[in-house]
UniProtKB/TrEMBL annotation:
It comes from the Bacteria. This is MSMEG_0569 family flavin-dependent oxidoreductase. One of its GO terms (molecular function) is monooxygenase activity. Keywords: Oxidoreductase. PANTHER family: FLAVIN-BINDING MONOOXYGENASE-LIKE PROTEIN (AFU_ORTHOLOGUE AFUA_4G09220), FLAVIN-CONTAINING MONOOXYGENASE. NCBIfam families: MSMEG_0569_nitr. It comes from Aquirhabdus parva.
Length: 432
């Protein structure tokens, strides 16, 4: 990695805020076009993968989808799922190959537009200016924890999913996991496999099969073109950005996550967590609906694969349909923490974006940037690495390169051809 001490300039044609896979992907294409730039990273490059993943974490998408620019997966298990340490090694290889012009340990406190054009960035190491700014800090900034969590007994250990490491790091006793998206479902499984008594408050997260008709479901969906579907062609349009990810796992070679099987094995399931009264939590009676809806999505995805197989005349294993292995005969609507022996709560209910440091009028009422494929209405300001920025893979190893190349090609043509206000005019790079 290039040493930050060699950087003395305060103005750059392009500054990238964020040194994760999206910011580094943009750096790759800027280097290819010999465009001077600087990456500013608050922590260290790819920090989230190093510090915000639990010990048993593995990818939920197969390794072949790891396709960072100039650095595709080259291991001997393309249909496997890299574990946490393997992911970090893959990222380290990408960084070593890229040698990005990055300054780590630098916080960007404020980005404001300049009257003369371009932007000013106030940081913890001084002020910079840039003609173009790519915000690549992701969309998962502020952990969501309900207000009433502050009223829980002080004897209860509370952590967010980003702080969870392993079952041994928790105190003895039962654990309540709140949220059944990808992180919640996988953390609940991790604790369950370790012999912990787990209570799980479910949400409306969907699920999907790991393998179906002889192949990984991801392989089928890739062949069907789902991962190339742009957001404007998705049935939900931009609304898909608010969807919770399907829960499934790559652990131990990959398998389904079936909350009903967990329940058969002793995990206690609830509907949506609603409120706290003393040391008793109450839940909405939504468990059956949550499980049924997750299974309906599971079967619907499989049916779409069935239709594709039939249409293409593909020889494959026989079709099947998931049937529930357990039903909640009587939903539990309350939980006394003391009586249940719960000593830990893990909040797995997501994050809120925080772009308050970007003082440019490009955000909607929810604080999310208005953009088209990462290009905002303020010339020279771009966003990269957000979920469904353009396709399903925009925030993942599989699709971020395409988005980064698009934005960098646009920057290059604006610089070379002198386009001004490109985003207002709907201009897109002629090379893509």
């Amino acid at each position: 990695m290039i040493q930050p001490s060699i950087y003395h300039a305060s103005h750059y044609p392009v500054i990238i805020v964020g040194g994760g896979q999206s910011g580094l992907s943009a750096s790759h294409y800027l280097q290819q076009l010999d465009i001077e730039h600087l990456v500013l990273e608050k922590h260290e490059a790819t920090h989230a993968w190093r510090e915000k993943r639990w010990d048993a974490f593995s990818l939920v998408t197969p390794n072949w989808q790891c396709n960072l620019p100039g650095y595709p997966y080259a291991g001997n298990d393309p249909h496997g799922f890299m574990k946490r340490d393997e992911i970090i090694a893959y990222l380290d290889g990408f960084i070593d190959t890229l040698q990005p012009p990055i300054r780590e340990g630098v916080t960007v406190n404020l980005v404001t537009p300049l009257e003369s054009g371009g932007y000013e960035l106030q940081t913890t190491v001084g002020t910079f200016t840039a003609d173009h700014v790519i915000v690549a800090s992701g969309g998962y900034h502020t952990p969501i924890i309900p207000d009433f969590a502050a009223k829980l007994p002080a004897t209860i250990t509370q952590i967010h999913s980003e702080q969870y490491r392993n079952p041994e790091s928790l105190p003895e006793g039962a654990v309540l996991v709140v949220g059944s998206g990808q992180s919640g479902a996988q953390i609940a499984e991790d604790l369950h496999l370790a012999g912990k008594q787990v209570y799980l408050a479910t949400g409306d997260a969907p699920r999907c099969a790991r393998f179906y008709r002889g192949r990984d479901v991801v392989d089928w969906l890739a062949d069907m073109g789902y991962y190339d579907l742009p957001v404007e062609e998705h049935p939900l349009r931009e609304g898909v950005r608010d969807n919770t990810n399907h829960y499934v796992t790559g652990r131990d070679g990959g398998r389904d996550i079936d909350l009903r099987r967990f329940a058969k094995d002793g995990m206690v399931l609830f509907g949506r967590l609603e409120q706290l009264d003393g040391d008793t939590l109450s839940f909405a009676p939504t468990l059956k609906a949550n499980l049924d809806n997750a299974d309906a999505v599971y079967n619907r995805i499989n049916r779409s694969i069935d239709q594709y197989i039939e249409k293409q005349g593909i020889t494959a294993e026989s079709a099947s349909r998931y049937e529930p292995v357990w039903e909640p005969m009587n939903e539990h609507n309350t939980l006394n923490l003391n009586e249940a022996g719960i000593t830990s709560i893990i909040w797995c209910i997501g994050f809120r974006p925080d772009f308050s440091w970007v003082d440019v009028p490009v955000f909607n009422a929810q604080g999310y940037p208005n953009h088209q494929r990462g290009v905002t209405t303020h010339a020279g300001l771009y966003f990269l690495g957000l979920p469904w920025l353009y396709t399903w893979g925009s925030g993942r190893f599989s699709g971020v390169a395409r988005d980064a190349e698009f934005i960098v090609r646009l920057i290059d043509e604006i610089r070379v051809k002198g386009y001004v206000g490109a985003s207002e005019s709907g201009y897109v790079p002629s090379t893509l």
